[in-house]
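Work package 3, deliverable 3.1, input record:
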Amino acid sequence: MDGSYWMIVPGNAALSALILFAIAMPFLWAARRPVHEFVHALAHLVGGPLRLGSRWLALSARELRFRNRQVLLAHGEEETAQQIGREFERVAALVRRDLEGYPALQRRLLDEITRVEEDYKKCGEVPPPPPEWVEAVEAVAKVRNGNEVVQRVLDEINRSIREIHDKTLGEYRAAYESRHRILNGFMPFWRSLEKTLAQADRRITSLNDRAARIDAQMHRFEEIVSHSEKAEHALTVSAATQLAVATLVLAIAAGGALVNFKLIALPMSEMVGAGDYLSATLRTSEVAALVIIFVEATMGLFLMETLRITHLFPTIQNLAEPMRKRLMWAALALLAMLAGIEAALALMRDMLIADKAALLQSLATAPHLTGPADGWLGRIPTAGQMLLGFILPFALAFVAVPLESFVASARTVGGAALAMLLRGLSFGLRLAGSLVRSLARVLITLYDIVIVLPLMLERMLRAARPARVSEARVKYPHEADELAVRRHS
Amino acid sequence: MNRRRFVIALGAAWLPGCADPKAHTQAVYMLVDTSGTYAQEVDKAQAIVNYLLGTLQPGDSLAVARVRSRSFSEKDVIAKATFDNRPSQANAQKRVIQNRVEAFTRSARSSAYTDITGGLIQGALFLNETGAGKKTILIFSDMQEELDRATVRDFPIDLKNIRVVAVNVVKLKTDNIDPRRYLGRLEEWQKRVEGAGASEWRVINDLENLDRLLKS
């Protein structure tokens, strides 16, 4: 089809367009108000729901944030209360263990101090006996010399004095020796005293540390109870950290499960058959192996629950004590049985692989030069596989701990992320609504620019009209007023 | 690969119901030509059978039959088995088949005529009976069919949903004189097999690439 059918002046598109535009301009001017209204209505039609949606999303985000906050604070409150309770339990245990024996400790201390005091008194210095014979010596010394008898007596006295002096000195030394022995005997008591005091000091310090920890927990608890922003922020950050750690641990556990799966998938085909398929590439034996791993994880979960390490199932938590213990033993027994089965499967896997290798070797046309390792060296992989098969179910049992942490923190982090997403969407819708309104204004202005000539003409005519109206008012005042009122309305 | 399977298994563990167990198994019927000078090639057939024994999985089926003057007979089946679902039992069955084929290759005698069509019909019957999802007939032959006057094979045969693979199609002396004979022979067989409803026709002469035997 020829594209020049619209041209009024053939061969001159610009002129044709100009003429067409000139013809259309009065119509466009006449249709100005309906077009404006149409654009306004269109903007309202699009922008209204957008604004409404934005408001709804903002409200939902606020409500979600409020609920998240409530849940977070309640969870934090419960957790902190539990921690405080546990700290108090530890303090009680500490007091029972250490301070219960405090009277005995005090008595021992007092005994040791009394003994030390007694010994101290015993080792006090004993003064030497007063020299009563000094006066006799002095009297004899006054006797005149030259008398042989006197001389002999004096010699005798001198000898006696020397003997007595030596004896006294000996006794004095012996007394000091015994005092030194007593003092030497002090040492163990001093050491014991020092040890007992250090022990008491350690216990008191440990108690002080616990008290400081309880103080910190109590402070945190108070902040949570008072619903402070700081507490909320701290709890959110803590939840995000927990989620990251739990995810990492769960990923490691998934790796363990993968190894476990690899260990038992092949021997499971010996039990459920290797030729059965659930889908094009998925064997029933593989699903059976996976089911066994799931059952092991579930038993581990129950074990952790019954041991009260995790608190995922309130029903188990609320069980009576004998029933809880029975359930715990049942879960442990099943887990041990499954671990035994896995060890047997691991052995079977090794045997199947060896059998397959032997078959392939016999099928191969080229002779194999290297044979399988014999003796204990060849049995290491088998033993390793069996050990791994036995240990992995028990290791997987501990998945319950990070799982609980993951579930608890995912609620908080997921809720916060959802609230943020809702707020983002709300902002986006609000922005879109504003853009639509602005676009409508731009379109209206553009329309007016297109019909600027008739608009200028209209404005000029309007400017001239008041003079005519005032003239008319002089001639027909009543009709002019009525017209003005109608126009105003 | 294992990780992918683990993830698939993780998803499928929640899926209820089971698929048809037979649909994922495969069945192979191998025809070994013992006619004329081709009987010298029978040692190579042993390598192919060994490859199949190493590749086929528990639940799969394998039959090895010879092509003689008249091959539409159970007597021509050297060994056949549907492997047990337990890998250990399947390995034992594979050992039995290996021994039988080995004994056959030692005592194989040349036949006067070559009834490939009869073997194909016999193979199709066996494969259809197994109900396997993937069915393959391997023809270890020079594809030169020679029938005696009394044998009737000029009627349409049914090879629906069966792959037919001609292996080690050696060139005859006459083919060397005029290669069109060889190409024409193969083309004729392709027409015949595809006309019988076979899902695929393939010729594999390079025995180093046996992995293409079971791949469609």
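Chain B has one domain: 26-212.
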